[in-house]
Specification:
Farnesyl Diphosphate Synthase, two-stranded antiparallel sheet, 295 residues, 2 strands, mainly alpha, 15 helices, 1% strand, binds geranylgeranyl diphosphate
């Protein structure tokens, strides 16, 4: 199987599972379920849930045992995008190629849709015990997601990102923002796959280093796409980082150096998981895909 087929097959599993974990659009109060579904099924790449599956599969766990966790990380990711787009945050009109949640449903419902997705994520993750994972592994996965999403993870990164707007480019600060705002959830995805797949200590350490490297590379490429990307592929406005004077990798290091760092990070990530053997081929291929992506 090549990467395109792997991504398509795992995306299909994730789409089908996601369909079942959120209430149907007509469920009362229907406006909130419509708003949650509007953003959740807007055509995201599903990279984070696929990373859960690929990491678990790399340590010998079947994909269907990891689907609740895969859904949980996508629910949480979608909440972060809805809140990130709000007028009080990045104030963006487009996401995933369509109007942002608050543009369609208003700010109050968008905030609540994000809250509901975030809350649902933990309930869905707890369902890992029902599909055969041990209570210990499930608890470890819940803890992992909570830490990654909180004030010393994604929320912390978002706070520093907002506070740094308009400031002078500082390497240490941009590294903090990227490793937390984006990197912490990506790291958690591969670790959750490993924890639920009962990875050995060495396997978990390798997955962790892999997650940290691709997480940083992913946000560096996101910064580059904001400069060089096209709406057709990215589904969001380009040039917005410069307009908001965001602290980005290219602002600190320039375009060429940023691309070089991203390449070095994914090369290192791919060799870190080499040791896991043939089952880790999707992880290696995903690392390279991260720097080549257009969306
Ligand atoms: C707690 C009020 C409150 C807000 C928090 C946590 C947060 C807001 C925002 C998170 C920061 C954030 C959105 C980081 C960007 C990460 C990123 C690169 C997102 C785009 O990911 P892709 O390209 O998107 O995987 P798709 O649409 O494919 O899923």
């Amino acid at each position: 199987m090549d990467l395109a087929n792997y991504l398509a097959s795992r995306r299909k599993l994730v789409e089908e599972a996601l369909e079942k974990v959120v209430p149907p659009p007509g469920a009362f109060p229907s406006i909130i379920h419509e708003a949650m579904r509007y953003s959740l099924f807007a055509g995201g790449k599903r990279l984070r849930p696929i990373l859960v599956l690929a990491a678990g599969e790399a340590v010998g766990c079947p994909a269907d045992k990891l689907l609740p966790a895969a859904c949980a990380v996508e629910l949480l990711h979608t909440y972060s995008l809805i809140h990130d787009d709000l007028p009080s945050m990045d104030n963006d009109d487009y996401r995933r190629g369509r109007l942002t949640c608050h543009k369609v449903y208003g700010e109050a419902i968008a905030i609540l849709a994000g809250d509901a997705l975030l809350t649902a994520a933990f309930g869905v993750l707890a369902e890992e015990v029902q599909v055969g994972c041990s209570p210990e592994a499930t608890l470890a996965a819940i803890r992992e997601l909570a830490l990654a999403a909180g004030s010393q993870g994604l929320v912390g990164g978002q706070v520093v990102d907002l506070l740094s707007e308009g400031g002078s480019p500082e390497a240490e600060l941009v590294e903090y923002i990227h490793r937390h705002k984006t990197g912490s959830l990506i790291r958690a995805c591969v670790r959750i796959g490993g924890l639920l797949g009962e990875a050995t200590q060495d396997e978990l350490e390798r997955l962790t280093r892999y997650g940290e490297d691709i997480g940083l590379a992913f946000q560096i490429i996101d910064d580059l796409l904001d400069i060089e990307g096209e709406f057709y592929y990215t589904g969001k406005a380009t040039g917005s980082d410069a307009k908001k004077q965001k602290l980005t990798y290219p602002a600190c290091f320039g375009i060429e150096k940023s691309r070089q760092v991203a390449r070095e990070l994914v090369d290192r990530a791919a060799s870190t998981v080499e040791e896991l053997g043939e089952k880790a081929w999707p992880l290696k291929a995903i690392a390279h895909y991260i720097v080549e992506r257009k969306s």
